[in-house]
Write a structure and sequence with these properties.
Length: about 260
């Protein structure tokens, strides 16, 4: 069967009409930037879009408004966590960003979820935090770390969500095995590099780059991405993933075990 496209990190308006998401025709992991935004997102029920709870490190209002107890409460209902992390260019002091990140990682350590991590200009600091506060499903979104940091990240069990920018300026393509890779758009932010990423789910550019690098077709790339998703979806609480999504994951699981 033909697998749906997977977008492991995209920004979507939390009040978007459900038919607009259905029309995307793929799985979208929609990140939020603040707990207020996440609160609204978690009232939704979409067939192939799952919603994360986030606190973007570059948004002072989000970081200053972060509350650990509120985050923990939202985490019980959330499909995943994102977008959280560190940003060297943020107006928020790094010590304040780190305090929030550590609280997030500690909560995820108790309630495992996949977490989409922002690491702009702070790749080493992020790996230090993950080493001190290990979690089960760290996903390094739009990773731009060095080769040594990439190898270290793999030792820490990280996954990597790659977008069309990776096809233009590779950092992880030749180091990261395919079973550690998810595809993403980071819509709308990668459009300046990848004009084809005009909507969430439009991951054709990175799929082609991965297919060429691994000398397989794009269908095999999607098949592997879905296989990588299986434990991430299994960790989602009841109600956070639709019956449609769980059916897609069960099909991917069966496909891998039958080989």
């Amino acid at each position: 069967m033909t697998r749906l496209a997977v977008d492991a990190h995209a920004h979507v308006g939390v009040r978007i009409a459900p038919p607009e998401l259905t029309a995307l025709g793929g799985l979208v992991m929609a990140v939020t930037r603040s707990l207020d935004e996440a609160e609204t997102a978690l009232t939704r029920s979409d067939a192939l879009t799952v919603w994360g709870i986030g606190c973007h490190p570059a948004i002072p209002e989000a970081v200053n408004g972060f509350n650990r107890d509120r985050f923990a409460s939202l985490l019980e209902r959330a499909a995943f966590v994102g977008e959280v992390g560190l940003d060297r260019r943020s107006r928020v002091p790094m010590h304040r960003q780190l305090k929030v990140l550590v609280q997030v990682l500690e909560e995820i350590g108790q309630t495992p979820r996949a977490v989409s991590l922002h690491t702009s200009g702070a790749t080493s600091a992020m790996l230090d935090a993950l080493e001190r506060h290990p979690i089960r499903f760290p996903i390094l979104h739009w990773w731009r770390g060095s080769r040594a940091e990439t190898l270290r990240a793999m030792e820490l069990g990280c996954l990597f969500s790659l977008n069309g920018h990776e096809a233009i300026s590779p950092k992880a393509l030749d180091l990261v095995p395919l079973d550690r890779v998810l595809t993403e758009t980071d819509f709308p932010h990668t459009q300046r590099y990848d004009h084809a990423a005009a909507q969430p789910g439009a991951v054709a550019t990175i799929e082609r780059a991965l297919a060429e690098h691994h000398n397989i077709d794009a269908g095999a790339i999607r098949e592997q991405v879905w296989a990588t998703l299986v434990p991430l979806v299994d960790a989602m609480p009841n109600g956070a993933a639709s019956e449609r999504l769980r059916a897609e994951v069960d099909s991917a699981r069966a496909s891998r075990t039958s080989r």
